[in-house]
């Protein structure tokens, strides 16, 4: 366990939590000790902590990205494939406790089992040391994953790009305003205008004001001849 703790970067006060995080349901079901628990409950908890840390990080990193794009980004960095890669980097498979049938069936290398174990480890760290202990571990693999994913999907903040261009001339003032909105409260469509010195230069639409602002900024950049 100490070997894994070094890889995780966290020393458990209660190592039984870490052992439980590595205990697959197949092992718990075969165990004669009725006190042996599977990692399913810790996985449930870890999933929530993972989502919270990731949401907090990308929310603060991308201050003007609409909710829909943030959701897509979060989903891509906490998916089974991404967590499987984390498990491989930690060598988590060698520490798993599996039942005989699962072991024989190649469960030690199964991506779903490994991804679930990562979430369970997060849950165990949270139970042992609280959010302050779990956050650094999650960020250790979320930060590079976010950077890689954002770059691969051309995750651009058009408002920031436009603002940086306009700021080169201090006399220019950039602003946004609602041109119109339509639809029911649960599915509204907004049309936003981007103004330069009170003159409308472009419009954009979206299901939130921020999404529409991004669309308007994108259109403005294209009109300025900037490839985006």
How would you describe what is shown here?
The protein has 228 residues and is mostly helical. It folds into 2 domains: 2-152, Ribonuclease iii, N-terminal Endonuclease Domain, Chain A (Orthogonal Bundle); 158-223, 2-Layer Sandwich (Double Stranded RNA Binding Domain). It has 11 helices and 3 strands, in the order ααααααααααβββα. Strands 1-2-3 form a 3-stranded antiparallel β-sheet. β1 and β2 (189-196) form a beta hairpin. The model has no long low-confidence stretch (mean pLDDT 91).
List the helices and strands and how they pair.
Elements: H1 2-8, H2 15-21, H3 25-30, H4 40-61, H5 67-77, H6 80-90, H7 100-104, H8 111-129, H9 131-152, H10 158-166, E1 174-182, E2 189-196, E3 199-206, H11 209-223
Antiparallel strand pairs: 1-2, 2-3
Helix pairs in contact: 2-8, 4-5, 4-8, 4-9, 5-9, 6-8, 8-9, 10-11
Beta-strand residue fraction: 5-15%
CATH superfamily grouping of the largest domain: Ribonuclease III domain
Q: Spatial order of the strands in the main sheet?
A: 1-2-3
Taken from the alpha-carbon principal axes, the silhouette is elongated
Number of strands: 3
Q: Report the mean per-residue pLDDT as an integer.
A: 91
Largest sheet: 3 strands, antiparallel
Rg over alpha carbons: 23 Å
CATH architecture of the largest domain: Orthogonal Bundle
Order of helices and strands: HHHHHHHHHHEEEH
Number of helices: 11
- The CATH top-level class label of the largest domain: Mainly Alpha
């Amino acid at each position: 366990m100490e070997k894994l703790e070094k890889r995780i970067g966290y020393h458990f006060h209660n190592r039984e939590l870490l052992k439980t995080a590595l205990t697959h349901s197949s092992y718990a079901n075969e165990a004669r000790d009725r006190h042996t628990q599977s990692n399913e409950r810790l996985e449930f908890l870890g999933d929530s902590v993972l989502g919270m840390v990731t949401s907090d990080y990308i929310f603060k990193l991308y201050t003007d990205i609409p909710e829909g794009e943030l959701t897509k980004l979060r989903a891509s960095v906490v998916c089974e494939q991404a967590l499987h890669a984390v498990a491989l980097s930690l060598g988590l498979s060698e520490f798993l406790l599996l039942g005989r049938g699962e072991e024989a069936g190649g469960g030690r290398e199964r991506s779903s089992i490994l991804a679930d174990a990562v979430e369970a480890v997060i849950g165990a760290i949270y139970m042992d040391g609280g959010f302050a202990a779990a956050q650094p571990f999650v960020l250790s693999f979320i930060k590079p994953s976010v950077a890689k994913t954002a770059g691969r999907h051309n995750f651009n903040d058009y408002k920031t790009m436009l603002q940086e261009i306009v700021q080169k001339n201090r006399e220019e003032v950039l602003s946004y305003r609602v041109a119109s909105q339509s639809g029911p409260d649960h599915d509204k469509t907004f049309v936003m205008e981007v103004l330069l010195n009170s003159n409308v230069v472009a419009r954009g639409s979206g299901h939130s004001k921020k999404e529409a602002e991004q669309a308007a900024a994108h259109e403005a950049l294209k009109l300025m001849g900037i490839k985006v």
